[in-house]
Amino acid sequence: MRVIRRALTAATAVTMLTLSVTACSDDGSTVRFGYISDFNGASLLAIAEKQGLWEKQGLTPEVKVFTNGPLQIQALGSGDLDFGYIGPGAMWLPASGKAKVIAINTLAYADRVIAKPGITSIEGLRGKKVGVPEGTSGDMVLNLALRKAGMTAKDIEKVPMDPATVVSAFAAGQIDGAGIWYPLIDTIKAKVPGLTEVASTRQFAGTSFPTAFVAGAKVDPGLTEKTIKVLQEANDWRAAHPDEAIAETAALLKIDAAKVKADAANVEVMTTADLVAKTEDGTVAKWLNGLGDFFVSTGQLKSAPDPATYYTGDLYTKASAK
After folding, report:
1. CA gap 123, 156 in Å, rounded
2. Does 183 sit behind a cis peptide bond, omega within 30 degrees of 0 on the bond before it?
3. pLDDT digits 0-9 by tens, 5-21
């Protein structure tokens, strides 16, 4: 059950970036898509634009960058987005009925609990101030680490804050630890080189942390199928061209490719055929059930729902067959 998520930049919630200069239309062809500015969240959008995949499906993308998944779920609910991207830490929101997962993206292992120099274990954060973006993968890895250590959130002074504030607060010594993710941790390390990583999603063997693309609670099957086709084709291009995918993502995000490559090292990419097979054989459901059980333990869900109620695996499989 790892928590989601990522942001190569600490951009504010809804800074708009338009990927296409094609004029927006009012005939249903414009797709409003949210993303997070890291390899997981941005790579398929960068590839789809560069390879002309939106145009191939008769769609025009209008994309907005967000700092986390929960904000995108809110935008989907208010009708400001058609689709978005979330990490595993926000998966409790689709599971609670606030969105639908239309496609699994990757398995991600970028989340860490970090601490100031001198603190070498999660137990060392007992009674200390720990900053975390609530409802995200940073929150998830913190809860996982506390549980493994026989602790709860009551054993620390948990301080809710957005990702950008986590970076600045840790650098300023205002908090003793944080539940956060790469590549933001690289930004923090540049300011606090002696920080320690006291927990990582890599430590939880047998647990998978899927990232995903989401739609509102009521999906438009036609538009969703076209969008899934774009994501699937971009996904296979990414799997076949890893170096080029990093370069395209870096170009979109306007950052150094080396930083994107370091971020991508925390990501497990799968082909569309593999994701279809994992949907059909129940592997994806197993991943989502695992997260669901975790979110029940944290109180974010009252009970773990059947993944079929919020993952549109039938649409994903159908799209791949055409």
Report:
1. 9
2. yes
3. 333 333 333 333 333 32
